[in-house]
Design brief:
It is a single chain. The chain is α+β, with helices and mostly antiparallel strands. Helices cover 38% and strands 28% of the residues. The radius of gyration is 17 Å and the shape is elongated.
Amino acid sequence: MDWHVSQVLATEEGDKEKTLADFLEHRILHGLQKQGWNVEAVKVTSGASDSEIMTLLADNQADKLIQLNINEWYFSINLNWVSAFNFDTDTLVKIYEVNDGQILEKQIAGRDVIEEKGDESPQNNVLRAYREQLVEIFSDPEVKSKLTD
């Protein structure tokens, strides 16, 4: 059976109406704010030009912008027994700086094999995999360096 994003992500009020992008945006903002970052979400299309992004940075009086273009964010899980499941991801990370334009473009892709925990629901195992993937992206040495310089 197909398990749709709204079924997996429905952990808070209003989550059923969110897309994967909305859900991840909310989690990323919350996580960064919790760590003391001054962040806000802005809508950027994957085909936005550098000049459009530079205007967006200036209009929002922002120093940096990180854009995650998700090409694949797919899990394959067997709900009949506890074992492991595959979580395939492919994310293009772009970071822009107000004075220098695009300062990083990096593809982060791979397959994680997520060992399920018997005392957690399948939903919790998927959400844990999502969190770990976001931690991997934001902990990447190049991404971290460009965000904190």
